[in-house]
Amino acid sequence: MPSPPRVVVLAGGVGGSKFTLGVRGALAARGVADTAAQLTVVVNTGDDLWLSGVRLQPDVDSIVYALAGVNDTVRGWGRTGDTERAGHELQEWGAGWPWFTLGDLDLGTHLARTGWLREGFSPTEVIERMSHRWPLGARLLPMTDAEVDTTVTVRDAACGQQRDLHFQEWWTRHRATLEPVRFTNPGVEAAVPAPGVLDAIAAADVVLLAPSNPVVSIGPILAVPGIRDALRATRAPVVGVSGIIGGQVVRGMADVCLRAIGVETSAAAVAGLYGARAGAGLLDAWLIAEEDAHLAPEVDGLGIRPLVTPLWMTDAATSAALGEAALAAAGV
Fold first, then answer.
1. Pairing with 151, which of 32, 201, 293, 296 sits 20 to 30 Å away (CA)?
2. How far apart are CA 76 and CA 66, in angstroms?
3. Do 93 and 170 belong to one domain?
């Protein structure tokens, strides 16, 4: 009987959370008893920030909560059943950001993380500790242990000048309405991949790029020196999943991010952004939605093998079906 595949997923955000759940579900459906031994998730930490003295890791927490089954599926982020008394009290003191929701249960996570960081544990070690609370069925690794938060340079029409904002302020407060000029991760040039990331990619049987925002979720991961080279060098097929369906973003404001870097909001254009591994890019195969089947020849022309499959992840079953389609696309 063949050994179960070793899978690495690069992910961030809600799309990454749902897809990771789906890949875990697909492995479980294949009879893999210990999915944590086979599934490694490299998580975007470009969304991270310090707020009111605590370290927040939104994408890490979204994936942890989703795998643990405690995420708020209605809002799409945070813990189910959470309250916001502490956040309101912070606002009364004039602390924190009044437009940034900080749930009480979520705050407990942030306090635990910050305490461990203050004690000298690395972000990798902190995530490992977090993984002990619930049976996640996956090993989570940050993209790097360095702090490389995302900065958005915007063109402010009110003053006619450019200014820098933390990604969370641009995304959450302004809802991406301020025109972005560029996205940067200060310090990323000096960062190194978190321990275990490069080894996991090298040993993988398949590497999957989740249908996360290609600019601000997958982009920061690929910007960490060494990760892009590792993806190009791995013997495993690299399969991506489009987060664009029918020319529309599934969630969030990825279209605004893509427009800022001169990329059309289409499944084929995002495939072109990642590029073909046969050339100077990353992808061997690219999953596109049935609504975008007409784009398959364009993707194929890029040197990337297109596969048309349902991409909507509306429940556990459809997420697992997509996870299985991604694994099958790699021939594992």
1. 201
2. 10
3. no
Q: Which residues contact 310 (CB under 8 A, 6 or more apart)?
A: 289, 290, 318, 321, 322
In angstroms, the CA 8 to CA 5 distance is 10
pTM of the model: 0.96
- What residues pair up with 238 in beta bridges, in sequence order? 207
- 288 strand-pairing partners: 308
Residues 47 and 163 in one domain: no
Residue 3 binned pLDDT confidence (cut-offs 50, 70, 90) = confident
Q: What's the CATH number where 229 sits?
A: 3.40.50.10680
Q: Return the pLDDT at 97.
A: 87
Q: Report the domain count for the chain.
A: 2
Domain boundary pick from 184, 209, 238: 184
| Residue 143 region by backbone torsions, left for phi larger than 0, else alpha for psi between -120 and 50, else beta | alpha
* CA–CA distance, 304 with 314 (Å, rounded to integer): 27
